[in-house]
Amino acid sequence: MHSAWNGAALLLAGALVLAGGCRTDRSEAERQTMQAGAQSLLGDYQAQHARLWKEWTHTAWAAATTGEKAHFDAHAAADLALKQLHSDPARFREVAGLLAAPDGLTPLERRALHVAHLQFQGNQLPADLLKKMADMAAAISHTFSTFRGELDGARYSNNELLDRLARETDSARRQAIWEALKQVGRVVGPELVALARVRNEGARQLGFADYWDMKIRLQEHDPARLLATFDELERLTRAPFRAMKAALDAELAARFKIAPDAMMPWHYDNPFFQDAPPSAAVDLDEFYRARRKEDIVAMAVRFFADIDLPIDDIVARSDLYEREGKDQHAFCEDMDREGDVRTLLNLRPTAEWMDTMLHENGHAVYDKHLDRALPFNLRSANHAFTTEGVAMMFGALAKNPSWLVDYAAADPERVAELA
Q1: Which of 415, 413, 369 lies closest to 390 in space, CA to CA?
Q2: What distance in Å separates the CA atoms of residue 39 and residue 46, rounded to the nearest whole number?
Q3: Which of 188, 310, 324, 332 is a Cys-bridge partner for 363, taking CB atoms 3.0 to 4.6 Å apart?
């Protein structure tokens, strides 16, 4: 529902812009009217956004923690409702009208309206197309959460398959395990391609080149500059990366008794080649494998308490250990932007999961300490880059020599040998 004032605010804003474009001699009464209108629109919008956001996060949490299709269906409905809030063309015009006025808004009001405008801009699509995207995304998420790879006639979790891959030295057997980790692709691949086509169609209707172009621009990035930055990064790191990988491949080839040019994706422990595999010289799992999965939690709790960012309340609300049907990955969610921050993990006593525990709780303490006095749609990271940077900084401590001694109780002499 719109307040009765909003239509008048739009007309006023439009008239002021048309009357002179840069007119700044508006009366105090006009400025007060403009600000009152912005507050009215934002108050109505923020209340609806908060309610729908909580429904979105809680249905997503139920889906991820149970794997039950009913919860994924409920999340699709909540996702659609949030999209529909931001698809209202009349309210989109009201927001645009207020932003077009040269003054009359506080910086905080202007930023809240700008962030709202970005969300509206990406959802100005027909209701049937919005529903189609929500339903397709929920179906794919359901498959990803509940799928378990099959090996030798038995189903295994990702953690179990990764453990087997790390221990296996036979190339053919490693290939079979690696392919089991990738079996989900055969199931969701066609669905992902179909969703990408629908999303691209929607983005082009809104005047963007494709869905990627739209998402990057609505995150306030210039796609050309972003690509140029990563192209430069690749160019600057190409030579050292190739040298490092050649040394890595030679070491792994010797382990698997194959020629270096026979190396294949399954010879690396991470199925996405995102982490270097343990080497003959350094295997950080040695500091964790004798521990229990609960010890990974205890180490993180003690560390964050020591830096005066306690996570006891976050841990109490979180879902930390793997089970059938549960999402196998990891994420942090601010459920209500009022303090209910929690994480989902599938912990095991490994260096990777120690990294992930610190990483996700890095996101969590970031969210926990956001200013709750901010307007609802500004109670989030000011950009994905900032919260991700904080999380990666904390996660990297799992490989830090001093941290290993202080929190993983690693032998200082052994750490010094490997440092």
Answers
A1: 369
A2: 10
A3: 332
